[in-house]
Amino acid sequence: MGEWAQCRSRKASSSHGWSGYGGQVLGAYYPQQDPSGSSSGSAVAVSVGLAVGSIGTETSGSIVNPAEKSNVVGIKPTLGLTSRDMVIPISLRQDTVGPIGRTVKDAAYMLTAISGRDRFDNWTSTQPYEVTPDYAKSCTPWGLKGARVGIPRNGIDFHLDDSSKPVMAVFEAAIQTVRDAGARVIEEANFSSYDAPAFARNSSIVLDTDFVAGLSDYLSKLLSNPNNVRSLSDIARFTKSDPLEQYPDRDIYVWDRQLGRNITNASPESWAAYQANLFMGGELGVVGALDRHKLDALIMPTFAAFHLPAIAGLPIVSVPLGFYPAQTALRMNLKKTLVSVAPNIPFGIAFVGRKWSEEKLIALAYAFEQRTMIRRQMKPSIRPTFELSDQLEPTEETPYKLKVQYRAPVTDQPKLAHLIKSKTISRLTSIRSWLRSTFGLTQSFL
After folding, report:
1. What is the pLDDT of residue 84?
2. What's the burial of 231, exposed, middle or buried (CB within 10 Å: 0-12/13-18/19+)?
3. 400-409, pLDDT tens digit by residue?
4. What is the C-alpha to C-alpha distance for residues 204 and 209, in angstroms, rounded to an integer?
5. What integer pLDDT is reported at residue 279 of this predicted model?
6. How many Cβ atoms sit within 10 Å of the Cβ of residue 138?
7. Residue 179's Cα: distance from chain center in Å?
8. CA 88 to centroid of chain Cα atoms
9. Burial letters for 312-324: b for 16+ Cβ neighbours within 10 Å, e otherwise?
10. Kind of pairing between the strands at 316-323 and 346-352
11. Strand partners of residue 319
C-alpha cells in the first residue's frame, strides 16, 4: 500500500502505491499507471489475478479509489462494522477496513467474514447486529427494482475538471441503466451545503491530531520494535536517516504540520472540527439528502463520492463503470512520475448510503454489475510472471505455501469451485477458513 496512506508528503498523490520497503506498485491498465491509493497493491493484486480478494483500509478514499483504478469492486464499510485492531491508524474517527474483490459477490462474502464486534476495537460495539449479516444473500439481479436513488449534483460538480468529461458521459448513460433496472432516479438530490474550504480545514485538524495520538498508541503495543520508534517524531527522524525513504525528495511536509500543532485529539479545537465534519457529512450532506428525498442510496462517480462518507463514517460500494477512451490525453501525477489519466484506465460508480446499509448498497451494486459486466470489457495490459508462493517464506508459525494457477475466466460456478479446491491452497492465513471454503465464487475468477 502507499506508505503511511499518503499521510506524509506535500504531493500526496506521488505516494500512491509507493513505500520505501516495497517500491512502486503500478496500475495494470496503462504503462506507468498511477494505481491510486492508499490500498494500491490490494486492488492491483486482485485485478491481475494474484489474489481472489484482498483487504484494504480507508480513511478517505483509500479503498474505493484504487478499486476503481484497477477495475474491481471495493467496499468501504460503515465505521464500526469491521475491527481496526492493530491496523496502523490515521484516524480512529474515520479509519475503516474493507474488502476488494473481482465481483460484488466476492467482496460481499469477504465483508461477512471480516465483520463483527471486537473487544479490541470499541467502535465495533456500536453495530446493531448480534450476528453478522450474510451480505452475499443481498446479491440478486433485481436489487435495483423499486429502489429510490438520488444524484447529488452539487457534490459532484465541485470535483469536475477536463479529465472528468469522459467519466461523466459514461455516468449519465449509467443513470438510464439504473432506471431500466426498475429504480426511480431523483435528479438534484443535492447536499444542503458543500463547503469545501470548511471540509479541508476541519479534516486537516481531525486527521492531524488523531494521527499523532493514534500512532503513539499503536507503537506502544508492538511486541517488537527494533528501531525503538515510539512517536511520530521518532518516525520522522528515522525517515530522514534511511536512504530507502528517499528524503528529502519525498518530504515529510504533513508530519511537520502535524507536529507543529499545539493541540491534541482531546483538545476542544479537535472535537469542534470533528463535530462540524459529522454535521457536514451527515445532516448537511449524505444523510440529509437521503432523508429529504426518501432515498435508498446516492449514486456518484467514485472520484467524487468518498469525501463526505469519510467524515461521517458512512458506507460506499464502488463498482466498475467504464474506461477512458482511446483519444484521452495523458495526465501525470503531481510528481510527474505516474500516469493518472490515459486511454483504458478504468473508473467506477459508487453507491453511498446510511450507516449499516451495506445490505441495500450491495443489492444495488450487484444488480448494476450484472446488467453491465463492465469489468469484462477490458483486460489488464500486464500479467503476473510469478507465483505468490515464490514470495512467501514458510516459517514454523505459517507452515504453508500458496500456489495459484493462472487460467482463463470460468463462468461455471461448480466447475470453478472444483478448480480452486483441487489446487494446493492448504491455508491462506485463514480468513475464517478460506473465506468459508472458497465461498462459492462468482463469475470470472481470473
Report:
1. 96
2. middle
3. 443 333 223 3
4. 8
5. 98
6. 21
7. 27
8. 16
9. bbbbbbbbbbbbb
10. antiparallel
11. 349
Residues 6+ apart with CB under 8 A from 418: none
The pLDDT tens digits for 53-81 are: 999 999 999 999 999 999 999 999 999 99
- Relative to beta strand 73-76, strand 316-323 is antiparallel
**List of the chain residues with pLDDT < 70:** 387-389, 391-446
Residue 306 DSSP class: S
The residue with cell 472540527 is 273
Closest CA to 421 of 52, 34, 124: 52
pLDDT of residue 383: 82
> Using CA atoms, how far apart are residues 35 and 16, in angstroms rounded to an integer?
6
Length in residues, the chain: 446
Per-residue confidence (pLDDT) for residue 396, from 0 to 100: 56
Q: From the CA atom positions of the chain, what is the Rg in Å? A: 21
Q: What is the pLDDT of residue 12?
A: 75
51: number of Cβ within 10 Å: 20
Residue 383 makes CB contacts below 8 A (sequence gap 6+) with 48, 49, 406
State the amino acid at position 361 in one-letter form.
Answer: L
Give me the DSSP letters along 188-227. Answer: T---S---HHHHHHHHHHHHHHHHHHHHHHHHHT-S--TT
Q: How many angstroms separate the CA atoms of 197 and 68, rounded?
A: 26
The pLDDT value recorded for residue 419 is: 35
**Nine-digit cell at 434?**
478460506
The cell for 377 is: 470489457
